[in-house]
Structure formats: C-alpha cells, structure tokens
Write a structure and sequence with these properties.
The complex is a heterotetramer, with two copies of chain A (289 residues) and two copies of chain B (574 residues). Chain A has an eight-stranded mixed sheet with strand order 2-1-3-4-6-5-8-7, sandwiched between helices. Chain A has helices spanning 22-35, 71-81, 93-99, 101-110, 155-161, 175-187, 209-215, 227-235, 254-257, 275-283; strands at 43-47, 62-65, 86-92, 115-120, 166-171, 192-197, 216-218, 240-247. Chain A contains ten helices and eight strands. The relative contact order of chain A is 0.14. In chain A, 31% of the residues lie in helices and 16% in strands. Chain A is an alpha/beta fold. Chain A has one domain: Rossmann fold (3-Layer(aba) Sandwich). Chain B has 574 residues and is α/β, with parallel strands linked by helices. Chain B has three domains: 6-192, Pyruvate-ferredoxin oxidoreductase, PFOR, domain III (Pyruvate-ferredoxin Oxidoreductase, domain 3); 203-376, 3-Layer(aba) Sandwich (Rossmann fold); 459-571, Multifunctional 2-oxoglutarate metabolism enzyme, C-terminal domain (Rossmann fold), CATH 3.40.50.11610. Chain B contains 20 helices and 23 strands. In chain B, the strands form five sheets. Chain B has a seven-stranded mixed sheet with strand order 9-8-10-11-13-12-21, with helices on both faces. A six-stranded mixed sheet of chain B has the order 2-3-1-4-5-6. In chain B, helix 6 (146-156) runs antiparallel to helix 7 (162-185). Chain B starts with 5 loop residues before the first helix and ends with a helix. The chains are: A alpha/beta (289), B alpha/beta (574). Chains in contact: A-B, A-C, A-D, B-C, B-D, C-D. Chains A and B meet through strand 2, helix 2, helix 4 and helix 10 of A and helix 8, helix 10, helix 12, strand 16 and strand 17 of B. Strand 2 of chain A pairs parallel with strand 17 of chain B. The complex binds thiamine diphosphate (TPP) (2 copies), iron/sulfur cluster (SF4) (2 copies) and magnesium ion (MG) (2 copies).
C-alpha cells in the first residue's frame, strides 16, 4: 500500500499498552480493508467490551460498540438489514467465547456474511488479568489462584464441528500474513472466523510474542476444502498452525436465505410500508358481507 | 350481565370445556364465524393449562346483539367435552347454567343435559370429530341456518384435505340435528334478540391487532425466542409478513434477539422483539444499551403470572415494575399498555414512531388475556399514511450525538450519506467515541434525560369512562379496559366513573387533574401488589382508598369488577 | 429389574402427549437409577423448562426445576457443594443447545461429575412446534414458515470438539439399550453427555419413531477411547450411530479440582465457619503495634 | 475542612496524579502504611480511567490526627507524575495548593514546585521507580522517620525479588532526602498536630470489608464473572478464601454465575455473586427464580455510572431502580447499602443470615467509591458467633413449600434426612410439584408476600447524624454516609441533621417518623434522578424540598455537600 490509508483516523490517545498485540491487529485490519478497495462508509465494525473491543475507535469506519459478548447478533442484524455493507464483528476472546459463547454457536449455524475477528490473548485484559476461555490449564491469575482447571476452548475445532463456512487462525505479530488472511475472510461470502493470537504484554506473561513465534507455524499444502483435514490440523496442540483451515464456497448466507433480497437489493431502510397490502391483509379479518 | 333472560340481555355466554387437543379452538373459530355471519357480535377468550394434550381447558364465547367485549363469569350454557373439567369450572357455573355433556356426573351448580357427543363423533369418523359435533349442537340449539354452519366449517378447515372437511361437515350436521331436537323439545331455549351489527365488522385477537399494528408502524424485522403468550405475534408476522418484506428470525436466546433488534434499527430497519417476563428480564441489559446508544427499540412484553416460570399460559399484570426498572443506569423509556385490539393496533404502530422519533426503548405491555381473546372491532384501524422514518442523510463530519436542545440528535444510518455512524455503549462524545471527560458526561446524561420533554408532549392521555365528575373513580390500565367499561355500564351509577391508562410511563400529565379531582380513587389491577397504584402514588401522590386486585392467573370478569365496585361504594355509603 | 422401582412416583396426570418419546426416557432413567442401586435421596435431578424438563416431576428424587436453559450451572454447583450426590441435568434440545448453549460449552470445559441428558426431539415442544437448534434444514414450522435455513447443530461433534469426557447418543424408542447407555453415563466420573433422540408425536412429523428406527444403528466394535474415531463416527449423517462414542477415564473433575474435598468429603453445608481463621485474617489488616 | 492551616485542622490532603501503570497504588499503600505506623489516621480513595496503561488517574490520600474517612476536594499538596493530569485536576486544586512535579507547565490554581522526580528515578534504576521517589519526597516533606519509610517499602514489596526491593529503597531514600531539603528550605511546610490513634487500628477498603463480612456470614461459594468494580471482592476471596474452604469459580457469564449461586444454596452451601449493573441486569431473571423457588441468594451489586458500559471505573448510585425492579413477577427482596467498611462487613454478613432465614434474594448495593477507598476503622468487626444455618433435617413426606403463618417453610437440603427436596420455577404445590390449581396459586403468592412481615421485623433502622430534632434533614443512603457526616461536622449547625439508610428496601418503618418530623427534607444522592428520593415518596409520601445530586462519575466531596447544604439553608432563610 502506498499513500494515506483511508481508514486511518487521528486518535489523541490509544488506550492500549505500549507493545500490545492489538496494534498489529489494528494495522492489519486497516491495511486489509484498504487493499480490498473499500471505503470507510461501506464498512461497519461491531464490537463488544474489552481492550480488543476498543479497536473501532481507532480507525475510520461506521461502528457499533455494544455490550460485552453481544457483537455477533448486532452484526448479523446489520448485515441482514443492509447487505451492501461490509460488516466485521470483532472483540476479545473473553467477549466472544465466554460471555458471547451462545451467539458464537448460533451465528455459525446461521452463516451471515460477516468477518468475525477474535483477538485471542488468552486472558481478560480490560478487567485486569483473569483467565479467558482459551487460557491454558494451570494459568495463574488473581482469580484463578490455583491455576486454570478447565480445558481450554479451541475455537477452531469448535467452529469446524458446527460446520462453519470459513475458519482461520492468524498471529498479531505477523502483519503481512494476517492481512492476507483477513482479506480472504472479509471477501468470503458467509461467516468467517479469524482467531488472531494476540500477545497481551501486561497480563499474560506466558503466551508472549516469543512464545507464539515458537509455538506457531503456517499451514502449507493444506486443502482448505477438506473439513476432516481442517479439523485434524486445527486439533494440533504441540504447535499451532496458522492460516486458513477451511473455506466452503457457495453456501447460502443468512441474509440471502431470508428471501428479502431476491428481487432487489434495496436495504430495508429504503423500503416503505406497503399500505395497500396491509389493508388487504386486514380485510381478511372482516366479516364477509 | 344484569339479571333477566339472555334474550332480554341480548347476549348469550357459552362455555366450551375440554382437554388440550380436543379442538376447543376449532369450536371457538367455527361458532365465532357462524354467529358473525348472522350479524351478531362475538367475543371469545381462553384459559388453558401449560400442556399440549390432556389437562383441562376452557373457552368463553359471548354472543351479543350489541357489543360484547369482555371476560365474564356468567355461563348460560356450557358444553363439556371432558368430564374432568367440571370441578375446575365450578365458580363459573350458576344455578341456571345448562351443562351439556356425555355422561357427566352432577357436581355442584347447574343443570346437566345429556348429549351424545361421543356417539355422534364416532359415527362421523372418530373421537377427533367431537368438536364439530359440539359446535353443531350449539348451533342447533340456537336455531341457526345449516348453510351458515356449513360455510363456517369449510372456512375453518380451508386448506385441509377434502375427506377431512367432509367428515367435519357430517359431524357438525349430526350435531346440528341433535341440537335442533333439544331446542324443539323445549328443554333448552337460548334465543337472542336480533343482531345489531356493530362497528367495523373486523374480528381480531389482541395478538393479531398488535402484529398488524407493528406492520402499520413499519416493522420489518422481528427477532424472537418463543415464549408464551408472545409467540403468536411472531408466528402471525412469520405467516403474513414475508410478502410485505418482513424478516422474522428465531434467535438463539432473548439476549440475542434484543441485540439483533438494536442492530436492525442501527442499520435503518425497524426491529421488534416479543417475549414474556422471563425473556424480558434477560433483555434488561440491552434495554440499557438502547438508551445509551440512543438506538430505538420496540419490545412487546406479553405478561403472564410470575415469578419465574409461574403459570406460563395464564394472565397477569405483574411485570410493570420490571419494565420500569429494567436496565441499569438512568434513562427515559416509554411503556404503553393497550386495552383492546383497537388500542393494540394503534399503540403497536405508535411504538415504532415513538422509538424512532425519540430514540428510546419502547415497551408494549400486553398480557395473555388480551392477546388470546378475540374481539369485534368498534373503531377503525388507521392504515393510511405510512410512517416517515426520522433518519437523515449524513454529511462528512456527521456527529451521531450532536448536543441539541431537545436531547434528540438527527439519526443517520450507515450506507446513506458521507458521514460515519458511530454508536457507543461507553459514555461518549458527540461523535460516539469513548470519553472520560466528566463535564461531557454530565452533558450527555442531561441530553438523554431531556428526551422526557418530547415524550411528555407525545404522552397519550388516559381515557375517561362513565359520568363526568363522578366522585368515585376506578383507575385501571392495559387489558382491563373493556372489563371495567362493561362493569360500569352494568352498575349504571352517576357517582362512579373510571380512568384507563394506555400509556403507563411516562404518566400523561394531562390526566393528572382528572385523577386528583376524584374523591375516592379505587385501584383495579390484575396483580397482587398494585404496581400501577404504586407508580401513581410515587409520581402524583395518589392515595388509594380501595384496591381491587386479582392474581390467580385468570382475568377479571365483568361480574367481579362490578360486584367489587358495588361493595366498595356501599362501604363508602355512596 | 424385579419388584417395585424405588424411583416410581404416583403421578395423577402426566403432562406429556400419549405416545411421546419422553415416556421411554422416563422409564429408562428410572430403571438406570434403580439398577445402579441408588436411593431417591441420593439423586438430584436438575432441569430447565420445556416438556422434557417436566420429567423430574414424574419420578421420586430430589429435584431443582429451574429456568429455561439454566440447568447446567445449577447442577454444577450442587455437585460441587455436595459431591456425594448423584446429579443429573436433563432438559430439551431447545433448552440445552439453544437458550443454554453457553452453559453447555463451559460445563464441558469444567468437567463436573454430572450426567447430562438431552431429550432431542428436534423441535420446541412446549411452545408448540418451533424449530430447535437440531431441527433439520427445511423443517417447516409456524415460525420457520419457509423452513429452517440454519445448519443443524450436532451436539456430539460439538461436545467432542471441546474434549468432553463422555459422549453418547441414545434413542428413546429403545429402552433397554438406553438404560445401558445411561448407566454408563451416570457411573462415568466427569461430565457425560447423553443426547437422546426422542420423537415428538405432536409437533415433529418428520423425525418420527419410524424415521429414527430407519435412520439409526448401534456402534459396534468402536473404540471409545479414540477421540478421532469418535469425532468421525459422530459426524456421520447418512445414518446416525447410537451408543457411546467417547469415554475418557481418570480426568480431573470440577469439584475435584477445587481442592475442597482433598482432606475430607464433608459437604459444604456441614462445614462451620472457621472464626479463628477469619479473625487471624482480619488481624493482618491491623496496624502493627 | 474548615479554614485554617492544615496543622490547625489536624489533617493533610495529598493528591497523587499520574498515568495508569505509574504505580500510584504503590505510593498510596506505602504512605498509608508509613503514616499509620506513625499513629495517624489515613483515608485514601481513587479515581481512574478504564485503561491499563496511560491515561490520567489520581489518588487522594488524607492524613489526620483524628478520624478522616471521606472524599475531599481540598488539596494541600499534589504530586504529579505526569503533566497531562494537571488540567483534569483543576477543580481539585486551590490557590494555596502546592503542586510538586517535574517541569510542569503552570495552568490555573496552585503553586508549582519543581522536584527532580525523573532524575532521581533514573538514578535509582529507571522510570519505574518514580513512585517510590515520590513517596520518599512526601515523607521527607512531612519530616517522617526514615526507618518507618523503609519498613513501609519493605512491606509494600514483600514477596518481590530482593534487587527490586533494594532499588525501591534507594529510590525512596533519595526522594526522602529531596523532600527534607524542601522542608528545610522553608518553601514547603506541612506539619501536622500529633497523632491521636483512633478506633480499631484496622485499615480496610470497602472491597476488603465486604469480602471479610461475606466470610463471616459463612459464604463458602463464590461465582462471578469479572466486572469492575466488583472484581476485587472476588479476587480477595480467591486469594484468602481457599484455606477457609471457600470455592471461587469464574462463571462463563453472569447468568451462569447467578444460577450457580442458587444451586449452591439449594445444596446447603452459602453462595454469592458479585457484579456491576450490566451483569446484574443479566441476572434479573434468576433473581425471580430465587424468589419463586424460595432459594436464598446473595448478590453484590457494585454500582458504576450507566447506562450500558457507561464509565466503567467510576462511581454512581444509579442502580437502585434496577435492583428494585429486577426480576419478573412479584416477590419480596432485600436491598442493603453499606456506608463504610464497618457497615460493609456487618451487612455482608447479615445478607447471608437474611437470605438464609427468610429465603429471599438479598442484594448488597455498593459502588466504586466505597469499594476502592481505604478507611481506618472506628468500630470493631463482629467475628465471634458464626451463623447458624436455618436448614433442617427432613423426614419422609417433607414438603419444601409447607404453608406457614410466616410464609417461611423449613428448608431441607438433599443429603440430610429422609425427605425429598423439590423446588420449582413454575407455580407449585407444597411438595414443589407443578400446579395449575388457581386457589393454590393465591395461597402461594400470599405465602411469598407474607415474608415481608419477617423482613419488616428485621429491618435495619436508618442512622441519625447530628443534632436531634433539627428542622432540616439531609437524607442519604449507601456510600455517602461518611461524606455527609463530615459535611455536617464542618457546618456545625443546630438546625441541620442527616438520616442515613443502610437498608433501602424494605424501608425500615422505625425510621419513618424521624423523616416525617423533619420540616425540610433534603435529598443527597449520587445519581441524576434521585432514585432513593422517589422510593421514599412512593412509600412514605416524602415531599422533597431540595435535592443535591451528583452524576459525573466522581463521589460527592465533603466540601460539595457542605456548600450545597449551606446554600440550601441560606435559601431557606435558616
Ligand atoms: C455483562 C458484562 N460483564 C462483564 C463485563 C466486564 N468486562 C469488560 S471487558 C471484560 C473481559 C475482557 O476480556 P476479553 O474479551 O478477552 O478482551 P481483552 O480485554 O482481553 O481484549 C469483562 C469481563 C462487562 N462489561 N459486561
Ligand atoms: C427465558 C425463557 N425463554 C423462553 C421460554 C419459553 N419456553 C418454554 S419451553 C421452551 C422450549 C422448549 O423446547 P425444548 O427445550 O426443546 O423442550 P421440549 O418442550 O421440546 O421438550 C421455550 C422456548 C421460557 N420459559 N423462558
Ligand atoms: S492489557 Fe493486554 S490486551 Fe490490553 S492493551 Fe494492555 S497488553 Fe494489550
Ligand atoms: S408436544 Fe411433543 S415432546 Fe411434548 S409431550 Fe407432546 S409429543 Fe412429547
Ligand atoms: Mg482477551
Ligand atoms: Mg425439544
């Protein structure tokens, strides 16, 4: 990319810690949107609450910064009300896999045309360092004083078990490759999960930049249309593969299956009430003369 | 409901009783259709158990020469499809009630008359057809024209396979004959004065009225998680809405539904969720989000008895306090509570305009009684002049939370104009970005609260029923409107009037004087603690002389309200 | 089983439709509990709301019939407060996979020692026939008038993707084999999912007894300790395998990992406040003299 | 806070300002420890942004010869670790305030004094040590003994590696020297009258007090989902509770947490959840379940400014209305609101006994100000006589919902006795089984509501502050207690008293007369709409003459309340 990125926003003061992995995600997302040739007025970012969820305040686009855990239903409805918009739901791992877990399950089943970006720092950042659903066993925090006892949630296998139409993992420390993955996810027609491994330099002293570098590698020669292979690779835990695990083309999207956009793609806000049709419907309740 | 024969009263109260799955609703629909064809006014209401088969349910069917639009405990004639029902209905049977059934055991009030329900059903093809037989018998007793009944059967089973329709026709026909015989024998006589067709000729349940009102209000997005008694609104819109471009989606839970509603409004659509108390409680946090982001929101809160799961298929006005307190923090909201289908339609429609123009959450309080009852309409429904959405085309530099004197900022939507639409759950600046500027915090709180001003201007005054300047005033809200109206008519007193609120929050200041002028305010409410009474005390300092409360899961009946008020007036020496 | 089952309860009137698959589940559960030699006072049933959730009213045991979707957290806490109790969480598919989806995810991660029984009738029974998360695509209902558009949720692969410690599927039409499966699940130390295919004779005219009979078969020669095989078999959709897919022995349970029951197993309600310890803790906030 | 030098006043207000991550809390802890070692009374309170690093935060540290226990806007001396802070603090600086900092730009009130913070920190090992340097400087200006500072540093860094402790000791030491020089130069003098050690010698934050009170109440099960400002209670119990057999578990969400609490109580444990407004809103349905199943429940509602996410790290008394209305249907609940750590401890303890004995949900309303402030305790904490659980051994045929005159049924637990414990979210019979018997419904509603009787007996009366029989009465609740108390002391008037409610629902009838007797009731509340005032109007018909409200996210200061009340009294011609 050359020149000014249209998604750049002058921000007085970014609320993230210096060195945080969120900066990489922000940079990658802006670059992806720009490289896809989108304009800020075409893009809506929907987030929850947390450090990751502050991202929409740091780039130029429409945004809905809602409640902790609730980005996906909001994003699903926005897309369905106006499919011309490019809608990105993004937030933290606690937000999306913890509080928002039920929406995660059912958004995948619905398959709205969204990019779903999760900043996976394996910790609750904003509330100062409690375990998140992806924290490793044994991870000690001020709340989990004896260490995490629960099995960590693997978002990729989970999504694949629900037949998600696009599943990928990226690493915030590698902006160029993350840009490539994000672009595919945003372009993908349907629900697209991108779980981004993101070091939290303040509260996660285990899963650091160095740890992620050591523990990750990129998928190569992997067939993204093979769900079984995808599940197998996503189950790996010795080292964590990065890249696109699965991508299904041609699946019906939520907004597509509503049938509302078959004849024309006018967004709902431009569609007036059909008073004649309503009147006719009411007539069916009148006593036959 | 005053004394005299039903002929003199010009009305006839039928009670249909049986198990879930025995098709009481078919009898209800079939006879409603038939009597309406003949020009009579029909009201029907249901009380039923939370189960799919068995148990013991009943339906009230009131047939009137003039308007009948309220729940009544008087029964002229009961038809009992299942013997178990009888003891449960005891309170609704009078000495003069005729009880039709098949081998019923006498137990308490009323006169039993054997009718061969089961035999006729078997002859028509099986136990399944007992409902059509029953409808036929009643129609026969009434002395209605056979072709009207046939038409009604055909209408009720339209779309079903021909053989089934034929069997039902046969069943109804044999019932009709049995009914005629009964009538001719002189053992039953339930003639009615001739019909005086009233009003609109429209016949709607509360559910249908609210769903149609939502359509008139421009609703094009419905998110819900099924919950009685709200589900009917959603299924109505699913069935009838698609052609009108309405999207109906079942959410994974109520929190998802509520957040989808906000997403829809943010993008310029008009979303609605419908739920009951428990589901609404789950939406509580999202109500607060609606207020903070100033994103409009419409929710139907279909009340049923609580706490928790309570009595899921019954009625109560028990969730007002919940609706008033739902959501953390401080913000304006609107609570509307229709009293009949006309208001159901008008207020559902109005909800969308209020939410849109003031950018606040609007909650429509209905209840099982209103939703599941069918009324003949008296006033017309306003369908002309579709609403004009209060959204603007934005220009670059647009600020979603521009500080304005009214507190309302022009609302843009993504995809229309050059501006960026940013909304935020945190305290924010005019552009929607997070702020910790504590001076700005005060400005934003004040901005949001200033909307109370616009809401006050738009507040819907309470409706005065009965004689002007009466000293005794029954005060009610929501679904009790027609019950209280009829009770007043029965009592026919000059010292008693009623005031009905269809907007319960913010209270319509215009009605305050009317209430303050009353010497003896009497609260009539379908709950155990008098929640609306508390609200009126809080805001207007009303001191209640009497409270008429009901909370067993059934609606008030006209008779209960009338006798309750009579007792109070007597006690007052009035 | 001979003689009277101690879990039998005289019930005036069961609220289920005649012929409903729930009767089979009730019979199988009572038989399982009895065959395991349990007494009613040792067993707690925890349910949500729905037709399935009424089951605890029809057998003799302790019960907590709570909110729609919320049986699992209640059950988890009961077990942790008194591990001597046998705790069974049971409810419908809508309840457990819809409203309660987030608890489902995280209960699996915690691995409390519960049997989790889901009456999977692929429909919302009590609310009169809307789609459930497991309804097939195209399933028409009064709410899904154009048919279900979402991908059905496969509870087995989902649970396996989260590394559930026991995963099984049964069929309400086969009481003897369901008893065997339930007994294994109840005996299993840790979280045990039993998804029971249950015909709803009133609202589901697609997935009938006949359909299930045709569409199911029992796993044979399957290695229940092999997670990959389990996932593969659970993914089958031509015909649905029945039986135990996966069972992991020796995993730490939630209540075990709390450390509260290491020294002794006294339930919490018998443990008095240690006033001396509390006093000593408070002293640490006093000004050094 | 009245005029005169701080020596005469016997107190010294320090303001520490800097970025998140600069270790203001270390300075706070270190100086609190040092001053308390010297026998002084210490109060500290924090205001901070919702971020982990950067931004601009501040801590107030009040040092008194006698009790100081409230938020104040007066600043004798500010130390500024980051220049950005200055403009935000403007309102809390006075003409006589001394501002210590490193190359600060003069901007507004106060006198700037340069101190080499950065240089000394660098010399000690880096920017990290600026906090210990600052603490040293202040201690030097005060003229404190070096060994006391050393001890405090060691105490604050106990458990850290030796090299780090050494560097901090060096940093503090060099600060001390610089502070001494300043003092000796005569440019700063902040001597204090000798200490008069007060009360208990205990120093606790609201968070710690409530957590300890929960332990005293027998809490052995904590479920939570992290949310400011409630998280500290949970992490305290996680750190200190395990040895006492307390299980702390992070739930997947607040709904899960609340339901786990109910499961725990059902099984005979004593569970608690702690959350803030948004999380509490999500628990709303479960509160109703607690009421319906009559399963006890304790929830700490740690308030912060709303709606929605609002200002997540700041303070407000804005969720009373939510707590009053949360949960559908009608049922008793108890809302307690401690005003200081002594009450925090006592009421947290009491919550468990109330929940247990009356089988109702109990909600403890705290707020960020109370929770994050540290107080010296005046009254002792009651730790003897551990609570006796109100559970019974059951016999066969046990009925969980036995109808009793008090409405409270003996509570059995599974695993103790021969009975079966059945609880139900639906309306139920005495055994806990679903019922649709509508007569029984009424009995069960009445049973649940009868508990208001027992609750009334146990209600905690409001505390009267100031002269008996004063004509003007400031009415407050929760965390404003000590602020109002000190404001009253400052004003020292015979015509002004205050009434503080630590139980806000059900209102303690014993206090009604005191309030009704006051000629001029003045509401003092930390929110924009006067929610507690509305409650008092509703229940006791109180008509407010004046309202003193604050809602910018900061607590009231003593000065604000005092001047506000003075203004009102002047206006009243009092
Ligand atoms: C309903 C609700 N519960 C809890 C919170 C408090 N909260 C804010 S952010 C957060 C978790 C943040 O973790 P994550 O989502 O992983 O984001 P991160 O800060 O790590 O980027 C929590 C629990 C809230 N705002 N709302
Ligand atoms: C919070 C909440 N939302 C909705 C409902 C209404 N409701 C009761 S049962 C039910 C679904 C029942 O379906 P399922 O769980 O599959 O059980 P089934 O009746 O099929 O056995 C619903 C939506 C409720 N009781 N509470
Ligand atoms: S706390 Fe962690 S996630 Fe949050 S900004 Fe700091 S480093 Fe990043
Ligand atoms: S509705 Fe379906 S699930 Fe419910 S009892 Fe009837 S057949 Fe069974
Ligand atoms: Mg995180
Ligand atoms: Mg089901």
């Amino acid at each position: 990319m050359m020149g000014k990125n249209p998604f750049d926003l002058e921000v007085e003061d970014i609320a993230w810690c210096p060195g945080c992995g969120n900066f990489g995600i922000l940079a990658a997302l802006k670059q992806s949107l720009a490289e896809l040739g989108l304009a800020p007025t075409e893009v809506v970012l929907v987030s929850g609450i947390g450090q990751a969820a502050k991202l929409p305040h740091y780039l130029a686009a429409h945004f809905f910064n809602g409640l902790h855990g609730r980005a996906l239903p909001v994003a699903t409805a926005i897309k369905a009300a106006n499919p011309a918009l490019t809608v990105v739901a993004e937030s933290g791992d606690g937000d999306m896999y913890g509080e928002g877990g039920n929406h995660f399950l059912h958004a995948i089943r619905r398959n709205p045309d969204l990019a779903h970006i999760v900043h996976n720092n394996m910790v609750y950042g904003l509330t100062k360092g409690q375990a998140s659903p992806t924290s490793s066993r044994g991870f000690q925090t001020p709340l989990q004083v004896r260490g995490v006892a629960s099995e960590p949630l693997n978002p990729l296998t989970l999504a694949l078990s629900l037949r998600a139409s696009f599943v990928a993992r990226a690493f915030a420390g590698d902006i160029p490759r993350t840009v490539e993955i994000l672009k595919q996810a945003i372009r993908h027609k349907g629900y697209a999960l991108v779980d981004i491994l993101q070091p939290c330099v303040t509260f996660n002293r285990v899963n650091t930049f160095g740890w992620f570098r050591k523990m990750t590698y990129y998928l190569e020669g992997h067939d993204v249309t093979d769900p079984e292979a995808a599940y197998r690779r996503a189950s790996e835990s010795d080292r964590l593969p990065l890249g696109v695990f699965f991508a299904a083309a041609g699946r019906a999207t939520f907004e597509g299956s509503t049938g509302l956009y078959e004849e024309h793609t006018t967004p709902l806000f431009r569609r007036p009430v059909d008073a004649a049709r309503l009147g006719a419907l009411i007539e069916t309740f009148r006593r036959a003369p | 409901m005053s004394g005299g024969s039903n002929f003199e009263r010009g009305e006839w109260n039928l009670l249909l009783a049986g198990e879930a799955g025995q098709g009481l609703q078919v009898v209800e629909a079939l006879l409603s259709e038939a009597f309406r064809q003949e020009g009579y006014c029909v009201f029907s209401g249901q009380e039923f158990m939370s189960r799919i088969r068995g148990g013991s349910n009943s339906t009230l069917l009131r047939i009137g020469s003039g308007p009948v639009r309220a729940w009544s405990d008087r029964t002229d004639l009961a038809i009992v499809f299942d013997g178990k029902a009888l003891s449960r209905l005891e309170k609704r049977l009078q000495a003069e009630t005729l009880i039709l059934g098949d081998g019923l055991q006498k137990a308490g009030r009323g006169r039993i008359l054997d009718v061969p329900l089961r035999r006729l059903a078997q002859e028509a093809g099986g136990a399944l057809f007992v409902n059509s037989v029953g409808a036929g018998i009643l129609w026969g007793i009434f002395g209605g024209r056979p072709e009207v009944l046939d038409n009604a059967v055909r209408a009720s089973f339209s779309g079903k396979e021909a053989a089934l329709v034929e069997k039902n026709l046969a069943a109804a026909g044999s019932g009709l004959e049995a009914g005629r015989k009964l009538k001719d024998s002189g053992r039953v006589s339930l003639a009615l004065a001739g019909p005086a067709a009233v009003g609109e000729g429209l016949h709607l349940s509360g559910t249908e009225a609210i769903a149609l009102g939502a359509m008139a209000g421009g609703c094009n997005f419905v998110f819900s998680y099924p919950m009685s008694p709200a589900t009917g609104i959603v299924t109505f819109l699913a069935r009838h809405g698609h052609d009108s471009g309405i999207l109906v989606e079942q959410a994974e839970d109520e929190i998802g539904a509520a957040n989808m509603v906000l997403g829809a409004w943010y993008a310029g659509a008009r979303g609605m969720a419908a739920t009951s108390g428990g589901g609404f409680a789950l939406m509580s946090e999202t109500i607060s989000l609606s207020a903070m982001t100033e994103t409009p929101m419409v929710v139907v809160l279909a009340q049923r008895p609580g706490p928790a799961t309570g009595l899921p298929t019954r009625t109560e006005q028990g969730d007002l306090q919940l609706a008033l307190g739902a959501g953390h923090g401080e913000f304006p909201r609107v609570l509307l509570a229709p009293g009949n289908p006309e208001q159901g339609f008008a207020l559902a429609r109005e909800s969308f305009d209020l939410a849109d123009s003031c950018q606040v959450p609007v909650i429509l309080l209905a209840d099982q009684y209103l939703l599941d009852s069918h009324f003949d309409l008296i006033a017309p429904l306003r369908t002309e002049a579709p609403p004009q959405a209060a959204i603007v085309e934005t220009t670059a530099g647009y600020r979603r939370y521009l500080l304005t004197p009214s507190g309302i900022s022009p609302r843009g939507v993504p995809g229309w104009g050059e501006g960026l639409i940013g909304v935020d759950s945190d305290e924010h600046d005019e552009s929607g970005h997070i702020t910790e500027d504590l001076e700005l915090r005060i400005k934003m709180v004040d901005k949001r609260l200033r909307k109370f001003g616009s809401l006050a201007e738009k507040a819907i005054p309470a409706e005065w029923l009965g004689p002007e300047g009466a000293s005794h005033l029954a005060v009610c809200w929501g679904s009790t409107l027609e019950i209280v109206r009829e009770a007043l008519a029965c009592l026919g007193r000059q010292d008693l009037a009623a005031l009905h609120f269809s907007q319960v929050f913010p209270l319509p200041e215009a009605s305050r004087q009317q209430l303050e002028r009353a010497k003896c305010p009497i609260l009539v409410e379908g709950n155990a603690t008098g929640q609306f009474g508390v609200l009126l005390t809080q805001h207007w300092g009303v001191r209640w002389r009497h409270r008429l409360l009901k909370y067993n899961g059934l609606p008030f009946s006209v008779e209960e309200v009338a006798s309750g008020l009579r007792r109070i007036l007597q006690g007052e020496g009035a």
